[in-house]
Amino acid sequence: MVGAGDLVEASGHPVGGGVIKSHYDPRLTNEDLAPLGKQSWSSYNIFAFWMSDVHSVGGYVTAGSLFALGLASWQVLIALLVGIVIVQFFCNLVAKPSQQAGVPYPVVCRSSFGVLGANIPAIIRGLIAVAWYGIQTYLASAALDVVLLKLFPALTPYADPEQYGFTGLSLLGWCSFALLWVLQACVFWRGMESIRKFIDFCGPAVYVVMFILCGYLLYRSDWHVSLTLGGEKQGSTIAVMLGAIALVVSYFSGPMLNFGDFSRYGKSFAAVKKGNFLGLPVNFLVFSLLVVVTAAATVPVFGELLTDPVETVARIDNTMAIVLGALTFTIATIGINIVANFISPAFDFSNVSPQKISWRMGGMIAAVGSVLLTPWNLYNNPEVIHYTLETLGAFIGPLFGVLIADFYLVRKQKIVVDDLFTMTETGNYWYTKGYNPPAVLATVVGAVLAVIPVLFGSAVDALGVAAQYSWFIGCGVSFALFYVLATRGPWRMSALRLAQGAELVEG
After folding, report:
1. CA 271 centroid distance within chain
2. Which CATH architecture has domain 46-381?
3. pLDDT, tens only, 5-43
4. I want to staple 143 with a disulfide (CB 3.0 to 4.6 A). Which of 112, 231, 326, 373 is the partner?
5. Which DSSP string do the residues of 151-209 spell out, in sequence order?
6. DSSP label at residue 494
7. CA–CA separation, 472 and 450 (whole Å)
8. How confident is the model at residue 507 (pLDDT cuts 50, 70, 90)?
């Protein structure tokens, strides 16, 4: 019988790996949440993680959607690069506490939210991962639809949601989505050592297909590609580019916040930073160039701008090329889902009840929830894509702001690791009945202020502009409010106490 530990190992993680001390409270502890006994990931492992995470249909579609803002190709490229450098900077910030203590994100959050209050960010982040799980599964199923329609043209009527559809998705789309959902669920449930190789294949495979696709389109366009594309620009170029940069950060806000789940395996913080540099600015530069040039080349070749790689592949005359291209994007997106949208909710939901919710159950919670969200309605055109990213960013930003303010400004990069796993009232992270009021209040206020522009931006122009910066608003407000509440007033946090035999780690 293959257990949850095999699944962790297959997904690129050591089996279990956590060292549970005798005084750790079982209500806060299992082998996946406990501090790692060995941290062995090199910079290459971190780089490979980012390569798998970046090279997805979702990443391509999001980058392509920036053309709808009215930007030229070179302006889209600059926005993508500036955005990814910001992501790299924030990833390094969120990586350090987890790498330092050897614990995943929801456990690190116990230092700022309290040992019980950490369930608040864990559940929020878990629900967001569920949304992304559904979105990536839908995008993979859309690529599979292309293959099926090319091989079996008689299925065309069933691809029309107006004729045969339910909740906005066609019958064929439902079948493809269900097939991929079941395949992924089987992988989660059974666990397979070969998944490690499968994921290693995904990133490079997409690169090969994208290089071939880009070269083909450039050849068809006689190597003449215009850099003036996109819709009508609203406002100044600088303002629109800043909005595009914010969208890039919002797109990566999930993996950015999740990154502690992976940086905990890094053998050193220096190795993590090097892996981030190779996997984000360097790798993303190549990916962005391919996206920009490929999208720009679709105009002279097909007579219109195509920002979806699957749709672009579908326009090619060669059936074999369409099938191979679409299947590659499908497989790659599934691989990304396994890495990015299963590992994190498994940690999050396990953190809520370590003894009752296993990795398997955490994955299945994410899988079931992803269907209920009807993800095809969250990512079906540029306007909806931006709305989805802005909404998710409004809730992720505050979690990030609180964590960074606590670790770097309040606690001065120090963590009493053993106190993350104790329910005793004398522990550093017990606060008020297991909850830290400054963290909870800062998160609520930050999220509310960040989501208001998203919800009412269509009615008020000024709010519409602010909506693009929902992640930054939520992060900034929560960061500042938490720092003020935690350093002065009735909720001021006391200095860390170190009990006899307790382990203190610091940067």
Report:
1. 21
2. Orthogonal Bundle (1.10)
3. 433 443 444 445 678 888 888 888 888 788 988 888 888
4. 326
5. H-GGGGGGG-TTTSEETTEEHHHHHHHHHHHHHHHHHHHH--TTHHHHHHHHHHHHHHH
6. P
7. 8
8. low
Task: Give the long-range contacts of residues 452-460, CB within 8 A, separation 24 or more.
Answer: 454/387, 454/390, 454/391, 454/394
Looking at residue 427, the DSSP 8-state letter turns out to be S
> Do 367 and 188 touch, CB atoms closer than 8 A?
yes
Structural domain boundaries in the chain: 46-381
Per-residue pLDDT tens over the stretch 210-267: 888 888 889 888 888 776 655 566 667 888 888 888 888 887 887 888 888 889 989 9
In this structure, the chain runs to a length of 507
Q: Are 470 and 391 in contact (CB under 8 A)?
A: yes
Give the integer Cα–Cα distance in Å for 333 and 59.
10
Query: What are the tens digits of pLDDT across the range 49-84?
Result: 788 777 777 777 777 777 767 777 788 788 888 999
282 by Cβ neighbours in 10 Å (0-12 / 13-18 / 19+) ranks as middle
Integer Cα distance of 322 and 312 in angstroms: 9
The pair of three-digit structure tokens given for residue 491, joined into one six-digit string: 């909720």
Spatial contact of 75 and 241, defined as CB atoms under 8 Å apart = yes
Average pLDDT value for the chain: 82
Helix (H) or strand (E) holding 416: strand 414-416
pLDDT value for 135: 82
